[in-house]
Amino acid sequence: MYNRSEGFFKAYDDTRLFFQIWANPQAKGTIIINHGQGEHSESYHRLVDYFKNDAWTFYAWDMRGHGRSDGKRGYVAKFDDYCRDYETFVEKVLADDKRPAGPVLLFSHSMGGLVQLKSLTKEPTWLSKITGQICSAPLLGLALPVPKFKSDGARILNQIMPKITLHNEIKNEMLTRDLDVIREFEQDSLRHNRISSAAFMGMLENFPYVQALADKIKMPTLLLVSDNDPIISTPEARGFYNQIGSKRKEIYIYPNAKHELINDTIRSTVFQDIKKYFDSFLGAP
Quick one: average pLDDT of 51-55? Predict the structure, then answer.
């Protein structure tokens, strides 16, 4: 069982960012969660609950403009702010003297995957302390159609009204086929469907940047993707996987799954696959 705690830490510009810890007294390793656009750290309660009797302590945070962190919903002045915040959080986790000894694994989803992967290509000082990573539906290209007026107007908006946020075009039916989970999302006041022009343009600019540097990622990597994700580009994710420089890499492709694999109707299978990967770093059979 977990001893749950929460708190806040300061970003480079003093923005107050929320984090929470699910500490397992019997833990032999650490998982650091990086959520996707529009969601927040509490969106991973099913994943965390699945491992409540296992050997891991989980750390998660809310990006600026998300969840319980400060900032206008969906707004970021520049995409790299997400990366700088993420790197600060990882440093905070690694410096925690209460963190269990043992492997440290990164788990990211969607836009959180893009943030995580870009941070890794920059080869941060803490890179050698990370044992491996999982990217669930990493945002390396879009399958979701974006209205032309939004894509054309993003750069202009960023210049004249940078704090304006627009609907991100994501519907809950794209995230999961589980009707109970959809109702949960509809009642979740911490979820939002807004995105700023800087965040949108930053995504587009970083797709080719991260793809071009895939061979710099040497750590063990597992990608989890739907065969036809309605939001992120499955072909781009698979292309990225082929270029990763790691000697140990795996990809699991789930037929007909929606975007949030850990909240979809197939989540029990996804959890089992994640557990198998996690356990491999503990020397478990």
Answer: 95
Phi, psi of 250 (to 5 degrees): -140, 155
How many residues are listed for the chain in this entry?
285
Q: What is the pTM of this model?
A: 0.95
Compute the Cα dihedral for 256, 225, 279, 263 and give only its sign.
negative
What confidence tier does 160 reach under pLDDT thresholds 50, 70, 90?
A: low
Task: Note whether 18 and 64 are within 8 A (CB).
Answer: no
R_g of the chain computed on alpha carbons: 18
What is the b/e burial string over 143-162, where b = at least 16 CB atoms within 10 angstroms of the residue's CB? Answer: beeeeeebeeebeebbeeee
Phi, psi of 60 (to 5 degrees): -145, 160
Identify the residue whose tokens are 């009797």: 53
At residue 254, φ and ψ (nearest 5 deg) are -105, 115
Q: Kindly report the number of other CB atoms within 10 A of residue 97's CB atom.
A: 4
Residue 9 contacts by C-beta under 8 Å, 6 or more apart in sequence?
Answer: 16, 17, 19, 61, 88, 89, 92
